[in-house]
Amino acid sequence: MNTKHQKHFAGMNIRRDLKLTLLASAIASASAFPIASYAEEAAMLEEVSVTGIRRSMQAAADMKQNSDRIADAIVAEDIGKLPDNNIAEALQRVTGVSINRDFGVGSEVSIRGLPQNRVELNGRSTMGDGRNGVNFQDFPASFLSAVEVVKSPTPEMVEGALGGTISLKTAKPLDLEERILAISADAEYADKSEEWAPVMSVAAGDSWDLGDAGSFGLMGMISYQDRTLRQDTFQVSQFVYDGAAIGLPDAVNTPSGDYIVPSEHKFEPFIEERERKAYNLSMQWAPASEAGSFYLDLNATERSGGQEAYSILHAGETPVATSDTFEDSSGALNNYRIENALIIPKTWSEFRETDSESIAFGGEWNFTEQLKVSAEYSTAESNSLVPSSEFNWRSIDPVAEAANPAASNEYRPDGTVINGSNQAASVIYDGGNPYLLTENLALREFRHEEARIDNEEEAFRLDVEYFNPGGLEWLSSIKAGYRTADNEYNKTENQFRQANLHRDVTDANGNPIVIWQDDIAAQFPGIIITPDVTGDAFEHSGMAGPSDLTAFSVYDGKLLQNTEATFARVQQLLANTNFATTGTLADNMSELKSSFANITESSDAFYLQANMDFDHVRFVIGGRLVETEITSTAYNQDGTALVRESNTYKDFLPSFNATVNLTDETLMRFAGAKVMARPDFEQLSPTYNFNGDYILATRGNPDLDPYRATQFDLAFEHYFGAGDMISATIFYKSVASFLKTDTYCAYEPEALALQNKTIPGNICIRPSATGDSSNYIFTNDQAEFDAFDAAGRRGILTSTTTNGSSGTIQGFEIGYQQGFDFLPGPWSGLGINANYTRSESEDPDGVPLADISENSYNFQVYWEYEGIGIRLAYTFRDGFLDENSQKRVERIGELVANLTPGVDDPTTGNDYRDELEQWDLSANWDINETFSVVANVSNLTGEPTVNRGATGAMWEVQESDRRFTMGVRAKF
């Protein structure tokens, strides 16, 4: 361990000892302090007699009405019964919340368009690979009793949320009214992968009256899930050509008169296996005096899996117009020929294995009727191993290879392309499908990388609340507190790579040799396969026509997941050559120093908060002072020494929440606050992170300041009936320091020496032979590229994050829910829950901010009567800016200027996602008080996800499974 790490951990130990000492002192003092009396503080939700969705919505409305903040909630009607089986998918029903999906499963949540949110469990941090907390796919929804989305913070809340705080809540053991055992067992079928998956959870809990020793409660939960999902992805890279280069007049649908030519067509079918185990244990004790309580919470999740994935593509082709060629409304070329396409099929796998855990010990004690002290010590940790492997091929003409091994001898077929505006394109090659010509396919590369990401936080907080100071009835309490936290993020990466095997392998005598796919199949029967994906490729959204990209001969993706066995086969293939190796794969791995990052962060926060109650008006007012110190450590570009950079900043975050009872049923709320969110750890690392061909790179920036914003909200809420409500909120957020992605062409001599120049049109060209430059060009002409190469002007297109960008977000939200229990008979079981959000955003360049849809809405219609329930849910969001710097559309802006120096187009490289919609259907039947049967369909209509460049030309379409679930619930 180096000196820097020794000092850091020594510092952490000192802080840990101090925190534990303070906590122990607080508990010891509390236990010895004489108690005058104890008044129960927590307001209980109104008890309801209904069940199912209706009961859940009533409890959520009660939580919203009783809150002192602008917030929304989802409440489980019972243990293990959150309305959706995925937390993100449940949250999409909340006003102002939108989600993105991974393999069709909810994974990312934005609040009013902002993804920089805090995810906490019972008020404390959760850990994932990054800043935003636990991945929603890793934490079981069945563990939760409620999820609250807080949009207007109060001083006591932990900082770090730009959009809002997502507060996950589990049940407390002492709140159990009786012993409970709840079991759920589901079987989920994914229609594209054609696989069944088990999803099970068990929850058990009880509390005991120990007489003079007080009361003790214990609750444990276990969850297991093992699913197989499929996702089909089609992509192109968008290049710019003038009409003369392809035999056409100028384009009429682009300002520059240039054509957008979809190139590098790629089809990727993914099969992903995900196994998740999760555990939760909560213990709680309260003395007989009921003066307080203490708890110990333990939580752990384990997720593992692998992918059977293939990437079938061509590159470097030349477009040629025909009599059938035309320009579509987005300026894109359609129905055209491609010549000299470079054939690049590969098998690859990339997934992660993540173990995360959190431990919290704390309690609260009422020293007097007026003074309450609470404290908590917590740790949270996430450890991920992210393995990725590739087994790549290159199409070689065997006749030409035999005649002249020194030449490139690539087999480059011609073909025809027919685009689809919302579908995968049709690509048909002349002379047959080149991906099935196994006699032409040569082994090009085997690569394996392992990235390890360790992310941990240790925190201590102490809160003191004094009720009615000075006997002032209107001053409910004064609350003050302190929180200190230490975070450490560490990323390392190791790699083994054997590249350009199709051209650089020589035998023991120095003679060049090629390792053909047919030879590999003969030596290792069964490892070369033709996956059966043609019939069900894009089965929901369809394709523009038949495509040779969907039939291919490759290395078996399941076998690639066993990388040691794959390495052993490659080792045998390369024995007695200049690429021969000895030992295991682990023996041959080497550290990628360019990917190393160690980031430590210490923060201290103090807050003061006043809670006021003037009968019909309530206020929560105060401020939070936060100091943050960040140190980022990485290797220098030569990889010879560690470089450290530090950044310290302070933030004062005032906030104001007012609730006015206009009537007993109608509330008006007003809130204002300053908020901040720190950059993600990847954004803080100063090292380069190169892609495999050293053509692209990303780079962090340790000098980044946090996101900072000032926000205001005005809300009206009207409650009627049992849990029925209508609400409207106007919101405004001024973000003073959005982070921005800048792109430049980097001059890194050592990396440039490793650069793959096979596809010259993807390599940026700098104005001179030395130095980085934000002005760069691309060229599609080989001779021109060769001239730039000879002049030393090649570069590496690098994206980095900088401070300084600002923006505004404003809009309004409307929510409505009602159960029609006034209707006669079975009709009384009808109900509806709907909301609508209008958001408008803009950065200084006039471009909308990323991930913000102008219009989004969702509704649920349900019917519950005599133990039978049915729910139909729909969610919709407008098209939105997905990324402001996407490599596959980096040349494209609204002006289609192809990065011409001197042309300022802020939309260049922008990636827009089409509108998203999804239908979900669920049903349940309560057989009796103990057993019920459930069924769900997710993504009922199999909607695809489509992304486009700035002119509207499509570059990506993805299609995922519809998921069908049947299961049984039991409660004893």
Question: What secondary-structure arrangement, pairings included, does this model have?
Answer:
Elements: H1 3-32, H2 52-66, E1 71-75, H3 87-91, E2 97-102, E3 105-111, E4 118-121, E5 124-125, E6 146-150, E7 165-169, E8 180-190, E9 195-209, E10 215-241, H4 243-246, E11 259-286, E12 292-315, E13 318-320, E14 326-327, E15 333-334, E16 336-339, E17 342-350, E18 353-366, E19 371-395, H5 398-403, E20 415-418, E21 426-429, E22 441-467, E23 475-498, H6 501-504, H7 517-523, E24 528-529, E25 554-555, H8 557-560, H9 563-573, H10 585-588, E26 590-591, E27 597-613, E28 617-635, E29 642-661, E30 666-677, H11 681-684, E31 688-690, E32 696-699, E33 707-720, E34 724-746, H12 749-752, H13 782-790, E35 796-819, E36 830-842, E37 855-865, E38 868-877, E39 880-883, E40 911-913, E41 916-926, E42 931-938, E43 945-948, E44 954-960, E45 963-971
Parallel strand pairs: 4-7, 32-35
Antiparallel strand pairs: 1-6, 2-3, 4-5, 6-7, 8-9, 8-45, 9-10, 10-11, 10-44, 11-12, 12-17, 12-18, 13-16, 14-15, 16-20, 17-19, 18-19, 19-22, 20-21, 22-23, 23-26, 23-27, 24-25, 27-28, 28-29, 29-30, 30-33, 31-32, 33-34, 34-35, 35-36, 36-37, 37-38, 38-41, 39-40, 40-43, 41-42, 42-45, 43-44
Task: Note down, in words, how this protein is organized.
The chain has 972 residues and is mainly beta. It has a domain at 52-267 and 279-316 and 347-387 and 451-493 and 594-746 and 799-971: Beta Barrel (Maltoporin, Chain A), CATH 2.40.170.20. Helices cover 11% and strands 49% of the residues. The strands form six sheets. It has a 30-stranded mixed beta sheet that branches. A five-stranded mixed beta sheet has the order 1-6-7-4-5. It has a four-stranded antiparallel beta sheet with strand order 13-16-20-21, with no helix packed on it. The longest helix has 30 residues, at 3-32. The protein starts with a helix and ends with a strand.
